[in-house]
Design brief:
Keywords: DNA recombination, DNA-binding, Transposition. By secondary structure, the protein is α+β, with helices and mostly antiparallel strands. The protein has four domains: 30 residues, no CATH class; 44 residues; 174 residues, 2-Layer Sandwich (Nucleotidyltransferase, domain 5); 63 residues, no CATH class. 30% of the residues lie in helices and 19% in strands. The protein has 13 helices and 14 strands. The protein has a five-stranded mixed sheet, sandwiched between helices. Strand 9 and strand 10 form a beta hairpin. The longest helix has 16 residues. The chain is elongated, with a radius of gyration of 40 Å.
């Protein structure tokens, strides 16, 4: 037992000397000196080896604690989520909450659609952009999303079809904002004027399109918040090889994270609540499949222009009309219903994508000269030659000066 501990318990110096076997002078010496408190050698915290990585990710805009927790777990972190959450909390940018009024919808009644712009750097470091189609079922919060290079009318229809197939059915109404591929404007009575091709596709798919009021983002707040959720939780720091790889990663994230987490508003997993939607089945594909096709004409050199890029097809169909089926990450080309070529979608506009063996068996013939308008030289006409004296008699003197 320590000398100072015995003294603090009330033992006298003589008693301490007897208990410890030390002389009284030695006991006095120890009691006169200041106590030296030894500290345990501090062990490194479990999170310390991963703080540099967390700081780097936060600097790049990745602040979602759940995502970062899973990432450092894969790197060997053995601690809990709370350590990560507490470390990230003071390092996140502050957010100002805004009050909103929430409107509930009946099961199977409504879905909300939005497009968002996402920037990235290609392999050469050049800035590029992608568009993200997002649909959210308003009752269950079940989400579907896909990236594409355009946000035109075909991209809208394709996203709708893929979302309905992912959900296993369609809602009765789908809410859109005032995008040109969907809404042309409003008439003098304030009624929505839909883009004809989009309206025909909506009727073929069997849902009623609805347009939110202009400049009222909260009208479709569910999909707006989901767009932000993807932008902040999925996109930062993401790497991918091409559009198909990116959409595979996004679909896996939807299946394993977004649609299976307890939603903060409904306190249920969207996947579990999907069964309560009682969605309507899709109509026969023969009704809506034609709206996924566009018609082009093959150039003389065997290329089809689509989405700002050129795609090679067999030379045998040069000059003929061809249909393009836009599948998002790939394009299918058909002539009279027969597929003649398939290409991955070009990552950036302006690229030329030849088809393998595109000119196979093309006859190699010498060019045939074509006759054009030609000039012709004719002989000098015969003219009677007279004696110079005869001219002199008629006109007087002859002069060669002018």
């Amino acid at each position: 037992m320590k000398i100072r501990d015995l003294h603090e318990q009330g033992y006298r110096i003589r008693e301490i000397s007897r208990k410890t076997g030390m002389s009284r002078n030695t006991v006095k010496k120890y009691l006169r000196t200041d106590p030296v408190r030894r500290r345990r050698a501090s062990r490194p915290a479990k999170l310390d080896p991963f703080k540099a990585y967390l700081n780097t990710q936060v600097a790049h805009g990745v602040t979602n604690g759940v995502r970062l927790f899973h990432e450092i777990r894969q790197q060997g972190y053995t601690g809990g989520y709370t350590l990560v959450k507490n470390y990230l909390q003071p390092r996140r940018p502050a957010r100002t909450p805004q009050a909103v009024r929430r409107f509930d919808t009946e099961p199977g009644q409504q879905a909300q659609v939005d497009f968002g712009f996402f920037g990235y750097d290609d392999v050469a470091g050049r800035p590029q952009k992608l568009w993200l189609f997002v649909m959210v079922l308003s009752h269950s919060r079940m989400t579907y999303a896909e990236f594409g290079t355009t946000a035109d009318g075909t991209a809208v229809i394709r996203g709708l079809v893929h979302a309905f197939q992912y959900f296993g059915g369609r809602p009765r109404d789908v809410l859109f904002d005032h995008r040109k591929p969907v809404v042309q404007g409003r008439d003098e009575n304030g009624d929505v004027v839909w883009t004809p091709r989009f309206l025909d596709a909506a009727l073929a798919l069997g849902f009623h399109p609805r347009a939110c009021r202009p400049y009222r983002a909260q009208t479709k707040g569910r999909v707006e918040r989901t767009m932000g959720y993807i932008r902040h939780h999925f996109w930062p720091g993401r790497t991918f090889t091409d559009l198909a790889d990116l959409n595979r990663q996004l679909l896996q994230w939807l299946d394993t994270v977004a649609n299976v987490r307890p939603h903060g508003t409904i306190q249920e997993r969207p996947l579990d609540r999907l069964a309560t939607e009682h969605l309507e089945p899709l109509p026969d594909p023969a009704r809506w499949a034609p709206y996924l096709l566009e018609t082009r004409t093959v150039s003389r050199d065997g290329f089809v222009a689509y989405g700002g890029s050129r795609y090679g097809v067999p030379w045998t169909v040069a000059g003929q009309p061809i249909t393009v089926e836009d599948c998002g990450d790939r394009l299918v080309f058909r002539v009279d219903g027969v597929m003649v070529a398939e290409h991955p979608r070009a990552p950036v506009p302006g690229s030329v994508n030849p088809l393998r063996d595109q000119w196979h068996s093309l006859p190699q013939t010498d060019p045939v000269p074509t006759r054009t308008g030609r000039a012709q030289q004719i002989p000098t006409p015969d003219v009677e030659v007279r004696d110079l004296e005869e001219y002199a008699r008629i006109g007087g003197t002859i002069s060669c000066s002018r």
